[in-house]
Write a structure and sequence with these properties.
Layout (H helix, E strand, L loop, with lengths): L6 H28 L8 H37 L4 H32 L6 H7 L2 H9 L2 H24 L10 H20 L18 H7 L2 H14 L6 H8 L4 H7 L9 E3 L9 E7 L4 H4 L12 H7 L1 E3 L2 E2 L5 H10 L22 H5 L3 E6 L8 H5 L6 E3 L1 H8 L11 H14 L5 E6 L29 H25 L7 E7 L23 E4 L14 E2 L3 H9 L4 E3 L14 E4 L3 E4 L2 E4 L2 E3 L17 H27 L2
Parallel strand pairs: 2-7, 2-8, 4-10, 5-6, 5-7
Antiparallel strand pairs: 1-11, 3-9, 8-9, 12-13, 13-14, 14-15
Helix pairs in contact: 1-2, 1-3, 2-3, 2-7, 2-8, 3-6, 3-9, 11-21, 13-19, 17-18, 18-19
Length: 654
């Protein structure tokens, strides 16, 4: 008896594959044209992107087809005689898989538009950061509305196409040999496509090197692959707290060799000591402002009041704009600034109960300071309160303490209103006026969904400063930026006229930029994507910054504070004092991969010079100097030195 190939199965797979390819390719092209600076790429790069993208698309389509269609359907066809209902059911499965793909692709586009990257681990952190609030913040974004409407229309359209062209399959029946043969043939075809390569290594994120530009390489992976890789990274990203494993991974024999690779030697030791001071120890207030972007701040003008009362203090004091965050989210920035930690989630890891010697708060504790962490948010967020209470802070205050003091309840899901937060900071300074104190202040209001106090009056904005048209969503973000900046300004005005004016240093910076405000994916906006301001109010009796054109980042903040306020204090040198930097040799970095220098920004072994704005870059590629290469290599190993020290403390069970 001749073997009949089950054409219904083959036809269903072909239709599913073609429709899926169209959606995945359209998503890729939409990101390329709508979000990336596609005009800077040549035809060869486009061709390479499409070729690699096709391979990744076939990989995910084949994996879906194999796992959810071919394998279970073939097994059931071998078992049951009534085959028509099975074929119809698994046709429906393919349709549902297709709709899921469309949904994930739209999430991927929206994610890229808001965060400036393909889907990554941060997407899982959104759940922990308040899923309800995150959803509410997205609802007000016009892009989400457009994508939701498009998704609904696509589902309706493809449903009618599915119903119309679905084969009736009346009385279809295959013998077992036919089913088995069909399964074997299609299995090996789909397995090969799912592997994506004839070589020794399967196609994966690690082997995706079709272009020199990492943005194009990342775009070759479709949103489904991005989500899969993000999930795997999230599962793997568990701190093992093993010094031996770390040294083996880095292929160094011991900690001394690791320190040498990080640039530490007799002239630049890992543990450094501040100079002897003859002035009284100042109070220190370090403020980390939620979503405080240099891009928005530098748009301040007479017709664009985005800074409010803070603008006068920016002009009176130190305001550095060649400054960058080392991480791209609040919790990782907290870890870098306070703990020198490369891990964003150390506060909720298995090492959350260990007090670490690399904590930047300890030099202040050892100098006799009273230390306090004041958060506008909730102490339970990422286990922040419990963790940092073990790292040198005497007290941790959150929105419940602020509400108890002001008797005002905030409707903001993220935390207390900034004006109430700073009232509480004032009260804490007065309460501790008889002692020297260190206060770390974390704001929360500049975070969507934006909820501002009743009676808030929005100032006028000049949207042309940001090459934008007036839009309610943009206005809401500017309102939040203005509100939090103005509240900071009002606090500084009070402080400068108070008893604390001559003995209190105030530092303010952003945790990260205000995400979703603009499309930061173009090459000339690479610095703006990570740029946060650095503000410093330093009374005259203390050392002053000699130059504001230097570059810096979050890891430089505490070495600067030690240099300003502590006498003969020992500290771990994971950054450099801004007081000691000069323009020619100063440098900073983001995530060990992007370097910030006086003559431009380095990324992927290329350098981009500043344009006349001081915020954007020229897209012409320049050579990276040996000095810049050396510093970026040392930064990588310095992060691993910090890891080693964290692991060592964990192993010793301190």
């Amino acid at each position: 008896m001749p073997i009949r190939i089950p054409m219904e199965m083959l036809g269903s797979l072909i239709r599913f594959s073609l429709c899926s390819l169209i959606v995945l390719m359209l998503t890729r092209v939409s990101v390329l044209v709508g979000l990336l600076d596609y005009q800077t790429y040549n035809l060869s790069e486009f061709a390479s992107l499409m070729y690699m993208g096709l391979r990744f698309d076939l990989k995910i389509i084949s994996a879906f087809s194999l796992v959810f269609y071919l394998l279970p359907l073939s097994i059931l066809l071998l078992i049951f005689k009534k085959q028509t209902p099975l074929l119809r059911f698994f046709d429906t499965v393919l349709f549902c898989l297709f709709i899921i793909q469309v949904f994930i692709c739209m999430i991927g586009y929206g994610y890229y538009s808001h965060f400036g990257t393909p889907i990554d681990q941060l997407i899982f952190g959104l759940w922990q950061d308040g899923f309800k609030e995150v959803v509410l913040s997205m609802v007000v974004n016009p892009l989400v509305v457009y994508l939701s409407v498009a998704l609904a229309l696509l589902i309706i359209g493809f449903y009618f196409i599915f119903k119309r062209y679905r084969q009736p399959m009346l009385g279809v029946s295959y013998n077992r040999l036919s089913v088995l043969t069909n399964f074997i043939v299609l299995f090996f075809i789909l397995l090969l496509l799912a592997r994506g390569s004839f070589g020794s290594l399967p196609l994966s994120k690690k082997t995706n090197q079709g272009n020199q530009d990492p943005a194009l390489n990342a775009l070759a992976l479709n949103p489904l692959m991005d989500l899969y890789n993000a999930y795997r990274d999230d599962q793997k990203d568990i701190i093992n707290f093993s010094t031996n494993t770390l040294l083996k991974q880095l292929k160094v024999k011991d900690f001394e060799q690791l320190k040498s690779l990080a640039g530490y030697d007799a002239s630049y030791p890992l543990i450094q000591t501040t100079s002897k001071k003859h002035t009284q120890n100042p109070n220190v207030v370090l403020i980390m402002m939620e979503g405080w972007s240099s891009h928005i701040a530098l748009g301040q003008s007479a017709d664009n009041n985005v800074l409010g009362e803070f603008n006068q203090h920016k002009n009176q004091d130190y305001f550095l704009t060649k400054f960058i965050s080392n991480s791209y989210a609040t919790n990782p920035s907290l870890g870098r600034i306070l703990m020198n930690s490369p891990f964003g989630h150390i506060s909720s890891s298995k090492g959350k109960n260990v007090p670490y010697r690399v904590s930047n708060i300890l030099p202040f504790k050892e100098a006799g300071y009273y230390t306090q962490f004041i958060s506008g948010g909730n102490r339970e967020w990422r286990n922040t309160g419990n963790f940092y209470s073990k790292q040198g802070f005497d007290d941790f205050y959150d929105r419940t303490h602020i509400r108890g003091f002001t008797k005002i309840s905030s409707d903001n899901p993220w935390g207390a209103y900034e004006e109430d937060l700073f009232k509480f900071v004032k009260q804490r300074l007065k309460t501790n006026a008889d002692k020297k104190s260190f206060s770390f202040v974390l704001t929360t209001n500049n975070h969507p969904p934006v909820v501002l106090p009743e009676g808030f009056e929005s100032p006028n904005y000049d949207y042309e400063q940001y090459q934008m048209e007036k839009d309610e969503y943009v206005k809401e973000m500017l309102d939040a930026f203005y509100y939090t900046s103005n509240a900071l300004g009002e606090f500084l005005t009070w402080l400068k006229s108070s008893e604390f004016a001559e003995n209190t240093i105030v530092i303010a910076t952003g945790d990260h930029i205000l995400k979703g405000f603009d499309n930061y994916n173009a090459k000339h906006k690479l610095f703006a994507k990570y740029s946060v301001p650095f503000y410093a109010y330093i009374p005259k009796q203390y050392p002053q910054l000699s130059n504001t054109d230097i570059t810096g980042s979050h890891v430089d903040i505490f070495p600067t504070l030690y240099d300003l306020s502590l006498s003969e204090a020992a500290y771990y040198a994971f950054g450099n004092s801004l007081l000691q930097k000069d323009v020619d040799t100063s440098y900073a970095w983001y995530a060990n991969s992007i370097g910030l220098f006086s003559n431009g920004l380095t990324a992927n072994n290329k350098r981009y010079q500043w344009d006349d704005s001081g915020l954007y870059l020229r897209t012409e590629e320049k050579k990276v100097s040996p000095y810049q290469k050396q510093k970026m290599q040392q930064v990588y190993y310095q992060s691993n030195v910090a890891k080693y020290l964290l692991f060592k403390d964990y192993e010793e069970g301190r």
